[in-house]
Design goal:
Layout lengths: L1 H9 L3 H22 L47 H11 L8 E2 L12 H7 L8 E2 L6
Antiparallel strand pairs: 1-2
The structure holds iron/sulfur cluster (SF4).
C-alpha cells in the first residue's frame, strides 16, 4: 500500500508535484488554524487530545518536563499553560487517556516542514514504531 502512495506523491512528474503540493497546503492551512500545527511531519494529534506537542518549548513528545506549576503553567513561559497539562485535560475530557500510555520516538528533524499526511501514507513517519502499554489507536 505504501508503495502505491510513494508512486503518487514521489513519481517526480507534474501530477505528483501538484498532488504533493496540494496535500501539503491543505494540511498546513487546516492544522495551523485548528491546532496551532508546527509542521513537524510526524503528527501525534490523535494521541495527544488534538493538541500539538511541538507547542511545548522543549519539544517534549512523551510527557511533561516536571517543571509544570501546580496551576498547570509552563516553567519556560509562566504566562502560558503547560502543553502537557492541556494534553492531559483534553484526553481526559475525550476519554482517551489510554493514548497517553504510548511512547513516541523523538522528532525526526529530516521530516520537519514536510506533510505528515504524506509521511503517514508513505510510511516515512514510521522511523520507530510507537510502543507502549495501551492499545494501538492510530
Ligand atoms: S512546562 Fe510543559 S510546556 Fe513547558 S516546557 Fe515543560 S512540558 Fe513543555
Amino acid at each position: 500500500m505504501e508503495g502505491r502512495f510513494e508512486r503518487i506523491f514521489d513519481g517526480g512528474g507534474l501530477v505528483s508535484r501538484v498532488v504533493y503540493g496540494t496535500v501539503f497546503l491543505v494540511e498546513k492551512w487546516t492544522k495551523e488554524v485548528l491546532f496551532g500545527c508546527h509542521n513537524c511531519g510526524q503528527c501525534l494529534l490523535s494521541y495527544t487530545g488534538y493538541t500539538c506537542t511541538m507547542r511545548c518549548p522543549k519539544g517534549l513528545r512523551n510527557g511533561p518536563c516536571g517543571g509544570t506549576s501546580a496551576a498547570g503553567k509552563c516553567e519556560v513561559y509562566p504566562d502560558r499553560w503547560c502543553v502537557w497539562y492541556l494534553i492531559y485535560t483534553r484526553c481526559k475530557r475525550l476519554h482517551r487517556l489510554d493514548t497517553l500510555r504510548m511512547m513516541h520516538p523523538g522528532v525526526d528533524w529530516s521530516l520537519v516542514g514536510t506533510p505528515s499526511w504524506v509521511n503517514l501514507l508513505t510510511g516515512r513517519d514510521k522511523v520507530a514504531e510507537p510502543f507502549g502499554l495501551g492499545k494501538e489507536t492510530r
